[in-house]
Specification:
The complex is a heterodimer of chains A (286) and B (297). Chain A has 11 helices and 2 strands, in the order H-H-H-H-E-E-H-H-H-H-H-H-H. Chain A has 286 residues and is mostly helical. Chain B has helices at residues 2-28, 36-52, 57-79, 84-104, 106-109, 130-153, 156-166, 169-173, 178-204, 215-227, 232-252, 260-281; strands at residues 115-116, 206-207. The longest helix of chain B is centred in the first third of the chain and has 27 residues, at 2-28. Classes of the chains: A mainly alpha (286), B mainly alpha (297).
Chain lengths: 286, 297
């Protein structure tokens, strides 16, 4: 039980981190980005190449990979999302494009690195045992890093000019433009931070489990569940939502076979849609 | 050679039926169903399981179609009153749950080992190669479904669907119960997918959860979008092109220095790229009418 709670908190922090970017894009650009989770995988593989093939140390690999993923997010905005905004495209076309991108990213990874699982080059350490449960060093590092990044996001959103601009465009992009906010610039920042955080989550997830082409894709449903639970466009909601989803998935193993973990996300999401479609803290439009 | 063409055509026919179901949902009504393969699986497994437990094959097929339609209703209820992207998220999860169920409930489905040894319609009575009969059956059904869907979408009911796709506030303002129309479209589309599932089982004589991975849904998507959303003729053309592409690239395998998993990945990358480019530059596809399908552009 206690072990499941620990595992749930660790998984929850990863989902939470990845869901921040998903919910920001959802709130600002108003579409469900199905490719978001594959950038988790992308980040993990780039870090893997830097760490294992090029022999860089893991911390350096981590930061470079996150920066590359964030830059790719910005690049795709110029290549795809910005032209579509110019055309005033319907949100359904954006969703279909995002699924196409997801297929491209995931299969490019399979094309280059194959389908087998990979691991970072790290010394194997014994887990810490206490109160009858085991916490691995990777879980502790992962949790610590995830919390650190969530705190950073909080300070960025509350205290910096760009963070405030991002919250403003998420609330109402037209109103934000009228009050003189450069929305294009804020959107670029949003992609960099959102996809960068997804890469952070992907690398941490790869540390705790293994690196494989489907690792992100299998988390897209829990991530959407976290976003919807927390209210679309609300980064704090996504963090809480991620924790709730992570914990419920792990604790569900007390009553359900572990194969159906994913069903828990779907179940929670359906309950939210039926009874509280704006999410727990929803302020945005449903 | 003829046998081979017949075998390939059967697959084209099955995918065309499957994709026409999606076209009714997406092309005509604007519903984003990313879990279409779940309904294919329900149709296939229901048909096979009913038959294996003694039901006649026609009754089994009908049950598969009805059950697939019923699950369309179940999925639609929590999602179709809300914004359109919720359907996309929930359906993709639904189809994965269906696959996990088939994979893990071995008492019912034999899990990864799959099911075989079931009847096929009139199999005992056909004096010639059964594939020729299956060809006729699949294309006969495709023709019937094509005509039925065409009739439906040109009826007053179908015009409401298209108006929902373009702007659902308009039919709502005219007093139409938009939710009911959407549910009906999703149920019919899912039932059509269920029928395609039964044919898939007949064609392979064996089904396993591996046949129902999420990618199958996106094959249907590229068929519909490439052919031209809201054009059933286009969907059939799309099925022919996509199957030719699939078969062609398998032959190409012998001539390029790529491992088979790389070829498979490359194939899906091409499909993903095509989906992106079509939605960006030619959302009406090959045969669609630009002035009709606006998608806000």
């Amino acid at each position: 039980m206690l072990q499941l709670i620990v595992n749930g908190i660790v998984l929850g922090s990863i989902i939470a981190l990845a869901a921040i970017g998903l919910t920001m894009v959802y709130g600002v650009l108003n579409f469900a980005n199905f490719s978001h989770a594959d950038f988790m995988t992308f980040g993990a593989y780039i870090a893997f190449v830097l760490n294992v093939a090029l022999g860089l140390n893991i911390i350096l690999s981590f930061f470079i990979a996150v920066a590359i993923a964030g830059a790719l997010g910005v690049f795709l905005d110029f290549l795809v999302w910005k032209p579509m905004r110019r055309k005033n495209a319907d949100l359904v076309s954006l969703i279909i494009i995002s699924i196409g991108l997801s297929l491209i990213v995931r299969n490019a990874i399979i094309f280059i690195w194959g389908g087998s699982t990979r691991n970072f080059d790290l010394p194997v350490q014994r887990g810490i045992e206490m109160l009858g449960i085991t916490i691995t060093h990777n879980q502790l590092t992962g949790l610590g890093t995830a919390i650190l990044f969530m705190v950073l996001v909080h300070f960025f959103l509350k205290n910096t000019k760009m963070g405030k601009a991002m919250r403003a465009i998420s609330d109402d992009i037209n109103l934000a433009r009228l009050s003189g906010i450069d929305s294009d610039k804020a959107i670029i920042w949003m992609w960099f931070i959102g996809i960068g955080l997804a890469a952070v989550a992907g690398i941490l997830y790869g540390l705790e489990t293994t690196i494989r082409p489907n690792m992100g894709w299998f988390l897209i449903l829990p991530m959407f569940a976290a976003v919807i639970l927390g209210g679309i466009g609300n980064p704090y909601g996504a963090m809480v939502g991620g924790m709730v989803i992570g914990l419920s998935q792990e604790l569900s193993m007390l009553i359900l076979p572990s194969e159906y973990k994913m069903g828990v996300s779907l179940g929670i999401m359906i309950l939210v849609l039926l009874f509280k479609p704006r999410g727990l803290f929803g302020e945005t439009k449903a | 050679m003829i046998d081979y063409l017949v075998a390939i055509s059967i697959i084209v026919g099955i995918f065309a039926i499957f994709a026409i179901g999606l076209n009714l949902e997406w092309g005509f009504t604007g519903l984003i169903n990313f879990g279409h393969v779940g309904f294919l699986a329900i149709g296939a497994y229901t048909t096979v399981l009913m038959n294996l437990s003694g039901a006649p094959i026609w009754l089994s097929m009908t049950s598969g179609v009805v059950l697939a339609g019923f699950f369309g209703l179940l999925v639609g209820i929590p999602t179709l009153r809300l914004r359109e992207d919720y359907l996309a998220i929930v359906t993709i999860g639904f189809s994965e749950i269906v696959r996990l169920f088939l994979l893990n409930e071995e008492w019912l489905t034999r899990g990864p080992m799959g099911l075989f040894g079931f009847d096929r319609p009139f199999e005992a009575m056909i004096p010639f190669d059964y594939n020729y009969f299956l060809f006729i059956l699949v294309f006969g059904s495709l023709a019937v479904i094509y005509l039925l869907v065409e009739k439906l979408v040109h009826s007053p009911w179908g015009r409401v669907l298209k108006s929902i796709r373009e702007d659902e506030d308009v039919p709502a303002a005219l007093g139409k119960d938009v939710f009911r129309y959407k549910i009906q479209a999703l149920m019919i589309g899912s039932a059509i997918a269920g029928l395609a599932g039964a044919f898939l089982a007949f064609n392979m004589q064996y089904i396993s959860p591996r046949n129902f991975i999420p990618m199958e849904t996106f094959y249907a998507w590229i068929i519909v979008v490439l052919g031209g959303s809201a054009r059933n003729k286009g969907t059939i053309l799309g099925a022919i092109i996509v199957q030719s592409f699939y078969t062609g690239t398998r032959y190409l395998q012998d001539y390029v220095p790529l491992a088979s998993h790389q070829m498979a990945a490359l194939r899906i990358m091409v499909i993903g790229l095509l989906l992106v480019l079509l939605m960006m530059y030619k959302p009406q596809g090959l045969l669609g009418r630009k002035e009709e399908l606006t998608l806000g552009q």
